[in-house]
Amino acid sequence: MTRQEAEAIYDAGKETVVRVLLMMDARIRALEERVQSLENQLAKNSRNSSKPPSSDGFKKPAPKSLRKKGKRKSGGQPGHTGHTLAMADKPEHTEVHRVKECEHCGRSLADQSVEGIEKRQVHDLPPLRLIVTEHQAETKTCACGHLNKAAFPEGVNAPVQYGEGIKAAAVYLKNYQFLPYDRTCELLNDFFGCPMSEGTLCNIITQSHTLAADPVEKIKELIEQAAVAHFDETGSRVDGKLWWLHSASTAQATYYDIHRKRGREAIDDIGILPDFLGRAVHDFWKPYFGYDCLHGLCNAHHLRELIFAHEQHQQDWADHMIDCLLDIKEAVDLAKQSTDHLDRRQLHTFEVRYQQILDEGYAQNPLPPLPRNAKKRRGRRKKTKARNLLERLDEHRDEALAFMYDFNVPFDNNQAERDLRMMKVQQKISGMFRTEDGAKAFCRIRSYISTARKNAVGAMDALTRLFSGNPFVPALNTS
């Protein structure tokens, strides 16, 4: 073998070793990324991500509130209205227990005057039963031969029917307390002696769905005209398939609807946001940004993501951003007691601090270097979750800090999350809606009840008014 042949074999061997090393390095990097991804999934819980508390299982994270400890003691505060059972001024029934004879010597005390009375009251339910009202319409024949018949009251259409109260109770139990059809019928029978069938209950639900159409349409209009509204969505099953339950709400009004889709198609079909001109508060889901209105981002979501970045990836800037956002919130809450804005000095101080934290984050999370064959590579460079969060807080700082510039904008999207919470409870109880019509009826009735309760009208009162033809419609400013 010549020297040249030996060198050629040696060079070929080096190239093979280099190729193998490069392949191994790429493989190791891919495995490291996968391990990191799996560790991230295991580390996420309801405290540091958007996962619901129900997903935490038996290993729930230890409570760790971001709120600063207050100076007041726990429990009711001075001036708080209590709910202790109180003596009634005018009881419906009074039973007098007389002293007939002396318990010591047995002498009769029947004719002796009463020196004092000790009172004790028992609050209890009266006997529960349906009250039947019979309507009798007279008929009279005039001298001219015409037969005259008195008119029945409006709504009295059948020989035997249920009244407004029992209908309202049935809808209340089914759509507000989330009882299944069979248990609702069982309760009505046990409590009121009303053996209602599931078919009748279904017809009553359908009737309330129809009667609530106009009030709920008015609720939609009120939300469309609001200065600030909250938007959110959550998964919901209809006939075994994944649908999406959407909500739009303010402090005085709530609207729910359900759709097969989650994105822009659903939002356009449902309405409100396409015509909304105020500020939409949401959780940075991109389809919301496709609408021409002001936006505000939920900082509760940001705090959870920042906690994860700090605890799981040791991102110091994330911890500093948590403190910054909470300090701004505290300053805004304090300023709200006497004014409707922060002064320019405070705004400038917070803006500078916010930018400094972003600069710190960028220094800690530089963009990854381009690969050697970058000219042939398409698409964007892969970024870490911390880098993506950092860029969101930078590019959408006006939306993230909207609560600082406009006191009408809340710090988070808690209003929408509270409004969706009971919808998730319904799903946990029932599992799913059997039909689309049933899901639509539930959303409309729940929109009506939720709006009524936000305006200090009880659910039973609102439903009774619905069946009586005098439904509740809020006339308040929903800004």
Automatic annotation (TrEMBL):
Residue ranges of domain DUF6444 in the record? 21-84
Pfam families xrefs: DDE_Tnp_IS66, DUF6444
Q: Where is the composition biased (Low complexity)?
A: 44-55
Record-linked InterPro entries: DUF6444, Transposase-related, Transposase_IS66_central
The residues covered by the Transposase IS66 central domain are 160-440
Give the top-rank taxon of the lineage listed in the UniProt record for this protein: Bacteria
Positions of the region Disordered?
Answer: 39-93, 365-384
Q: Locate the compositionally biased regions of type Basic residues.
A: 61-74, 373-384
Q: What is this protein called?
A: Transposase
The record lists the organism as: Kiritimatiella glycovorans
